[in-house]
Amino acid sequence: MSDYKLVFHINENDRWPFTLRSVRNFIRADDRHRAVVVANGGAVRSFSQLEADPNRMARIRGLEAEGVSFVVCQIALGERQVKEELIPEYVKVVPAGIVEIAKLQSEGYGYVKV
């Protein structure tokens, strides 16, 4: 199998379980696979430590430890009044999630909308 790069785009909070399973299955299929999860829209609420599901955050942290990058949209945080200080240190905050997706695609990442 070749090494593949995928960006998983999530914008609905209730899609996290499916997203995390999909990412896990992808990266565990081959240790050369790389994945980035970009969260915008309502999905950014899961990164708020005040609203976070502890099990979900543990799964996110576990995938991050396996090399998955997690990115959250600053615009979506502001629209949902989630303070950046609440975002875990292992999650990168970018000015606009959609721009990050375009950038990753220009770097050869495939796009998966979850």
How does this model look, in words?
- This protein has 114 residues and is of the alpha/beta class.
- The protein has one domain: DsrEFH-like (Hypothetical Protein Ychn, Chain: A).
- 37% of the residues lie in helices and 22% in strands.
- The protein contains 4 helices and 5 strands.
- The chain has a 5-stranded parallel sheet, sandwiched between helices.
- Strand 1, helix 1 and strand 2 form a beta-alpha-beta unit.
- The longest helix is centred in the first third of the chain and has 14 residues, at 16-29.
- The radius of gyration is 13 Å and the shape is globular.
- The two termini are 23 Å apart.
- 28% of the residues are buried.
- The mean pLDDT is 93.
Please state the CA-atom Rg, rounded to the nearest Å.
13 Å
- Low-confidence segments, given as residue ranges, are none
Number of helical regions: 4
CATH superfamily assignment?
Answer: DsrEFH-like
CATH top level is Alpha Beta
The strands making up the biggest β-sheet line up spatially as 4-3-2-1-5
Q: What average pLDDT do the residues reach? A: 93
Number of domains: 1
The helical percent reads 25-40%
Kindly report the CATH topology.
Hypothetical Protein Ychn, Chain: A
Biggest sheet character: 5 strands, parallel
InterPro entries: DsrEFH-like (IPR027396), Sulphur_relay_DsrE/F-like (IPR003787)
Protein name: DsrE/DsrF-like family protein
